[in-house]
């Protein structure tokens, strides 16, 4: 029996993209913006139409900034926090936040599996479901961190939206090698060395993307790079050796922060792509309340095929 083809959605990444890509003039009958809701439904319709997965899971950020990552690197995602938030909440545009519960209600009424796990990001749910998968996996995300899961041997690819999901770049090991100089297996090491200002990861001083790739090519992995820094006979320049050694405390913890978890207690769900709505009455009410119109109809049509 052929293993099912699994598609995993980094849902927040996609609804943020929908929010900024669809005008706020797209509103419900009572005048509330629904651009993220309708944009996401259009994204899912296009993805299902173009890629025809057997299983689909909308992975959610139950905790967008897990404390265990913050304990290791306190600067993790600090710049994304709302300035006036005492609870460390993520800064979300005022007109997007009310749309997130609507998205969740619509996905549930459709019967599209939706998973978030307390204490973990969507990336970690995606990492765990990918590790468990027995067949091909397509991960849809605008987050480069998930390139670390790309694995040609297991048919794991990332669909990285360039201009909407209709022009998503299919990212495999060959694409990563060409663009970053590493395969998926080495991408987390590259990300740790390089750092990522958008996630509050400082990286190693003086080590950018190209230098990180060069170091990994020469010394194999992050462990090898760090061993070279400690070896007086290695060919590292004095400045690079010094920077790597000065970054030791960061490099001790960065891999755990950068690498997605693959052992999250993800609940068992029926991930089969629904052919018809799980709760048609609720879906009809949501559609009327929020004016989901053609976006919902297009998705329902694609799912029914």
Structure description:
By secondary structure, the chain is of the alpha/beta class. The protein has 13 helices and six strands. It has helices at residues 11-21, 35-51, 67-72, 99-110, 122-132, 173-180, 184-194, 209-219, 222-230, 238-246, 248-258, 280-290, 293-304; strands spanning 6-10, 55-59, 113-115, 137-140, 156-160, 169-171. A six-stranded mixed sheet has the order 3-2-1-4-5-6, sandwiched between helices. Strand 5 and strand 6 form a beta hairpin. The longest helix has 17 residues, at 35-51. The two termini are 22 Å apart. The relative contact order is 0.17.
Outline of this structure?
By secondary structure, this protein is α/β, with parallel strands linked by helices. It is built from 13 helices and 6 strands.
Q: Element order, helices and strands?
A: EHHEHHEHEEEHHHHHHHH
Count of distinct strands: 6
Q: Give Rg in angstroms.
A: 21 Å
Strand order across the largest sheet: 3-2-1-4-5-6
> In terms of structural class, how would the helical and strand content be classed?
alpha/beta
> How would a crystallographer describe the biggest sheet?
6 strands, mixed
Number of helices: 13
Range of helix content: 40-55%
